[in-house]
Amino acid sequence: MSHPLMFAPDDDLLATLRELCLAYPGASERISHGRPNWFTTRTFASYGGHVKGSHDDTSLARALLVKPDPDHRDLLLGDDRFVVPAYDGPYGWLALPLDAEEPDWDEVDALIEESYRQTAPPARQRELDALRPS
Description:
Blueprint: H1 12-22, E1 28-32, E2 35-39, E3 43-47, E4 63-66, H2 70-77, E5 94-97, H3 105-119, H4 122-131
Antiparallel strand pairs: 1-2, 2-3, 3-4, 4-5
GO molecular function: DNA binding
Keywords: DNA-binding
Pfam family, one: YjbR
């Protein structure tokens, strides 16, 4: 059974996320469980989710889901903007709602990069290093 789309195709936040995520080496997009996901061999970012135990809650409908470095995750959890999403939260993922205030797109891109580095194969990470030298 396929899932219904859980996003608006003309969503301006989604358009910006799509642009950011697809700029990463080898990145592709697919719809999984009705939501956009960006991946190389594994997913590194998703758009939209749920708070654990509440499928009727729409607070994460327009959120970026990422997998930060485990050491950084604890710091991010101290920021009230970040939420542990259902399903992926126990595996280290966090959600940042993007529609509460104007997103800081540099911060969003840094979160995407960190998640990409947690999930992408070494060859893709080397490609990223070549594109974004430190």
